[in-house]
Amino acid sequence: MRQTFQASRRKALQLFASAPLLPLSSALGSSSLLLSACGGSDSVAAPVVPATATSVKFNGMAAPATVAERAAAYTAATIDIGYSDGSKKTAQALAYQALYRTGDVLSSPTGGSFVAGGYYYPDGVTPMIDTSGATSKQFVSDCPDGTSLIKLASPTVPGISGNTVFLVTQFEYKSVNAAGASMYGVLPSPVGIATLSQDKTTGALAAKQYFNVPTDSVHGLWITCAGSISPWNTHLSSEEYEPDAWTAASNAQFKAFSLNTFGSETAANPYHYGHVPEVTVHADGTGSIKKHYGMGRISRELVQVMPDQRTVLMGDDATSGGIFMFVADIAGNLASGTLYAAKLTQTSADDAADGGAFTLGWIKLGQANSVEIKALADSLKASDIIDVRTTDPLDATFTRINFGNGVQWVKILPGMQKAAAFLETRRYAAVMGATLEMTKYEGVSVNVKDKKAYLGVSAIRDTMETAKPVNFAKDDIRLKKIAAGATYEAVLGTDAGIGSDWVPKSMMVPTALLGKDIAKDADGNTADVNSIANTDNVKYSEAMRTLFIGEDSGAHLNNFVWAYNVDTKEKARLLSVPAGAECVCLTPVDDMNGFAYVFSGFQHAGDWAFTSPAQDDLKAAVKANWGLMERSAVGYISGIPKLG
């Protein structure tokens, strides 16, 4: 074929050489503009304005069926694109592009190299070593999570041929060590900044450098889950399942975290965790971090800042969790403000099977700044702030509250209201009358044009059920159990007393966003694969009018990323992650230097029970691709145009 091609090419060149010379415009298939530029006409035609993409429609794919599909980050979804001139392109293929795998070694902007997703001591440079296996090696996370794509005005990273952009990714935990023992929550979570080169013609992204952010200034990080980008261009992180300060001294997980991080089981202070870390990217590809102590201490999945740059909604991924809101004193600055918790009133019938409907009122918990709450965290123990009993003390000064999967009796000690509000936030909110009955309230996002927020509730169970499994203290929420969960749509409005136009007023579940439990099928699914199960990440695209939803479901063998159009109310399956993995890193980007993306990754591939020989084949394929809970990928769905 090479010889045939070369001969044909020579013949074509000979014919071209003997042909009459054509105008340059004819050789290029050009317009009259080129002809007039050569003096062919006195009139100048208007330049042709290329059509721009104005709309997209996602066409979902079937659930993966083969071992190869189920063992990969896989998409067969397509997209229809509408253009400003009325034309359309249909069934344009989407693709998944991995930027890096955890464990990849990338050069550092400060010299040397870093391991992507590698564990380092809080100094940011000393590797943490796993000595449990036959060969000692650095701990590497298989669990990336919150991600933000950031553009700076004047980046100074040398050697980048395309546009320089930065991807901040936090790593939630390490699943298991080399010996197979759980490492959940016993290592300080890393945060990495990848310098990406964006091709100026195609928009394709490539990871070029990596920087591990030092966290010693904030006492290290605890189980960083999902994240979001702030309107002022920083990465807002999270610290999920805040360690219970009342029981931390006897908690094996927290003691192991303290030992691994600081060399002593008693060195770590539980009140230093459960806050909002904020990462600032620097022009040279490095970064720095601080924690906001004045936003309440909860099992925070992520925060969503509203367009006023003051109002912040926060996910509380817990059983007996609440809906919390923070309103900053100054726009664009989370250092001080007022904390609120919601009181829900159910407006739908008891035992509603559709997720129910609610109105929301708001209870003020307190006003504070980060500096004063940090000082309280440094100096106080739980026993200085509260008294907690697990059996009824028969004392009217105690309040019976929901806590976790059971109840407690709590008394706030004299003069400790502010400390309790910001360091024992869920207990204090319950005492103050807020609804602490949400279960697995995880992601939150905002639709600015329609003034709506989306709240991902991974499972409707326990404290949310009508028939509650234990005698919980409150009963504001009375719903039929849906283990597959739901995504709520909340209407936002003005509250003059709070001083915000972005306050949730009511919420319900759109039909397409309701999970559907089923009897276990042949693949082990206990939720309908054609319905969304166990919503985790939710991120909304203003340009695409689309809510993107990522699953964290043991009810699906493969978890999926979905696209839900808020106008047509249709959903489409876009991506399947490897069997047993959770969808993470979900971040739509409407415009980055003229290109659009949907970032997505996965964690803990292979984390499911194998019940059949067919699944043993799948286990082997996942192991070959990623190891079993060893490595993962951070990447994006490509093929999506910038609109407008």
Major beta-sheet overview: 8 strands, antiparallel, barrel
**How many whole angstroms does the radius of gyration measure?**
27 Å
Ranges with pLDDT <50 over ≥5 residues?
Answer: 1-41
Quote the distance from N terminus to C terminus: 44 Å
Percent in strands: 35-45%
Helix content: 10-25%
SSE class? mainly beta
Number of strands: 35
Task: Report the average pLDDT across residues.
Answer: 92
Read across the widest sheet, the strand sequence of neighbours is 18-19-20-21-28-27-26-25
Query: What is the 3D form?
Result: globular
Put simply, the count of helices is 10
Protein described:
This protein is 13% helix and 37% strand. A hairpin with a 5-residue loop joins strand 17 and strand 18. It is built from ten helices and 35 strands. Mean pLDDT is 92; it is low at 1-41. It is mainly beta. The two termini are 44 Å apart.
Entry keywords:
single chain; mainly beta; 10 helices; eight-stranded antiparallel beta barrel; disordered N terminus; four-stranded antiparallel sheet; 644 residues
Topology (SSEs and partners):
Elements: H1 2-18, H2 24-28, H3 32-37, E1 53-59, H4 67-70, E2 78-83, E3 88-93, E4 95-101, E5 105-107, E6 113-115, E7 129-130, E8 137-138, E9 143-150, E10 163-173, E11 191-198, E12 205-212, E13 228-229, E14 235-236, H5 252-262, E15 276-281, E16 287-292, E17 300-305, E18 311-321, E19 324-330, E20 333-346, E21 357-369, H6 370-379, H7 382-385, E22 386-389, E23 399-403, E24 406-412, H8 417-423, H9 425-431, E25 438-447, E26 452-457, E27 486-495, E28 500-508, E29 535-541, E30 546-551, E31 560-565, E32 571-576, E33 582-592, E34 595-603, H10 613-626, E35 633-638
Antiparallel strand pairs: 1-2, 2-3, 4-35, 5-6, 7-8, 9-10, 10-11, 11-12, 13-14, 14-15, 15-16, 17-18, 18-19, 18-25, 19-20, 20-21, 21-28, 22-24, 23-24, 25-26, 26-27, 27-28, 29-30, 30-31, 31-32, 33-34, 34-35
